[in-house]
Amino acid sequence: MMKPNVRQRRLLSLLIYLLVIAGLALLEGAFLALVLPLVVYLVLGLLTSPAPPQLTATRTLSAERVFEHASVSITLTLVNEGAKGADLAEVQIAERLPEGLTLVEGETSALATLPAGERITLSYTITGERGDFSFPPVAVTVSDSFGLYRQARQIATPAHLVILPKVWRLRKIAIRPLSTHGHAGHIPSGRAGTGVDFFGVREYRMGDPLRHINWRLTARHDDRPYTNEFEQQRVTDIGLILDARRQNEIRTVGGSLFEHAVQATAALADLFLSDGNRVGLLIYGRALERTFPGYGKHQRERILRALARAKLGDSIVFESLSYLPTRFFPAQSQIVFVSPLHPGDQSVLVKLRARGYQVIVISPDPVTFEAQHLTPSPSVELAQRIVRVERDLLLRKLRRVGVQVVDWPVHRSLDRVMQASLRRPPQVLRVLGGAR
Amino acid sequence: MSWMRRLGAISFALATAGMAIGYVLSGRSGGAVIFVLLGGGWWMGERWRAVPPSVRRWLRAAGLVSFVGGAVNGLWLEVGAGWMLLGVLGALAAWDATNFAARLRAVDQVIHREALERAHLRQLLLAEGIGGLFGAAGLLIRLDLRFSIALLLGLLGFVGVSRLIRLDAFRN
After folding, report:
1. Which end of chain B, N or C, is less surrounded by CB atoms within 10 Å?
2. How far apart are CA B115 and CA B142, in angstroms?
3. Exposed e or buried b for every residue in B117-146, given b needs 16+ CB within 10 A?
4. Cβ within 8 Å, pair B135-A48
5. Does B170 have pLDDT greater than 70?
6. DSSP for A209-238?
């Protein structure tokens, strides 16, 4: 499309040419007299057109890291650094917001006159969905007062905004990986030691605290005292896998299933890290996007930032879970796979179990999610029933090989669904070994 | 009402009145009616918010072309040249004022609006003044040139205007 200033100049020039040709052809001087105002207009525009401008722009953000739907105030300042006299008759600033950000308040484009040494400021407030946003350069156009001779500039003002996914608070869940670390934590390690839960009874040894002596058992055996043992609670390695394969995504008017999966992953990372565990993240879809395992608040931030950047991918290589790099997760650790699940995933999850990983699958239910936004009809109902049977069968097969499955209808609270599905078994079952 | 809006209204009135009076005085009332309708239509199109910007852009171009074309036609039909010059000056001012208003509308915010409008108004009045003066001089002063010289001047004019149009392409 032709630029407006070029269009204006072309129109004027066309009229000038036509009048000159007509004047010459008809030898009519009055035609040429009509040309003069148009020529003067064009020449005056040229004479007052600005020299190449010396502009600097700065963009300041009230925060560079926020959670979803929080507001961020942005101030954009443009300064005319030109020497005295290098005034700019018309300056147009246009700020392009990165896709995914929404303007809440203020203005993102302006027209002003900018004398040398002065500045103009644009202030606006934005909000947005989860994401990692880099602001593009500011588009500045300077021109003469008639807007005939324009010069466009893209002024780079690097600014970065990370919008982290919402983090829900989850109550503790029972996980039982086969190996734990040496540090105290909340995961039962299957070994006797310092802890809270009763583990067993053994003969009293020198140094055992007297308050742990099992007096009832000691009374039945005259020769030696017995002491209670408790189960050690340790921290463990937890690997979170977020399924970002586009084939598993469902997008309806109610939102995206993937966004629910991202929020669930964020909440799980927060839960496991706050219990002192070492947590790593793998986003499987576009590529293998890894956040190496770590502890504490810094790791939480790293994982949330990785989740902020998470995007769906339709790589042919990662269509199936075959390329899941199991070496990324320490042997016998806990793996939490967040995925709506695909029928082909079953074999890979079974292999993980066979290699000694404890596997929990948090599966946002795609059937309920999609059905909620479909107009009820007999055919929809039939289709829903068929897909539901297929999914139930898949989940049952996974449960049969020891995978803990949380079937999560996303309209319900994840915390409640997880508590119902992964509740720690009663003490008596744990003592009898039913927990594993 | 801002200065530019006042100037816009005055320009439309000036362009329409100039052409209409010129045509009426030469006994061509039909032409006058056409220009009253053209001027009124152009002004209404600019004022009416329902008209999309792309249509307005074409309306502005069509308005200027029709007034300049009308002035050429008037000179050919021996309508008063002064009135025709007045019509062209008015149409040029109206075209400029509407273009300026479109630039203001295209942005969310206008900073230092008064200073911006004042500077624009000053330059427009200067262009109109000089253009009017030169145009009037062109109508009053008669020079007898040979056709070859007139052709040479015409060619020089072509080259000059072409350079003016393409100038910022070289700058950028």
Report:
1. N
2. 41
3. bebbbebbeebbebbbebbbebbeeeeeee
4. no
5. no
6. -GGGB-HHHHHH-SS--EEEEEEEEE--EE
Both tokens of residue B171? 């700058």
**pLDDT computed for residue B86 by the predictor:** 94
pLDDT at A116 over 70: yes
Under 8 Å CB pairs connecting chains A and B tally to 172
Note the pLDDT of residue B165.
64
Please name the member of B68, B92, B142 whose beta carbon is closest to the beta carbon of A41. Answer: B92
**B54: its two tokens:** 């792309």
Closest CA to B20 of B95, B97, B74, B72: B74
Sequence-distant (6+) residues with CB within 8 A of A420 are: none
- Residue B76's pLDDT band, with cuts at 50, 70 and 90, is confident
C-alpha distance from A347 to closest chain B C-alpha (Å): 57
Q: Measured between CB atoms, which of A10, A40, A92 is closest to B131?
A: A40
pTM for the complete prediction? 0.76
Residues in chain A with CB shorter than 8 Å from the CB of B110 are 110-112
Using only C-alpha atoms, what is the Rg of chain A?
34
Query: What is the layout of strands, in order, in the sheet containing A160-164?
Result: A65-67, A160-164, A131-134
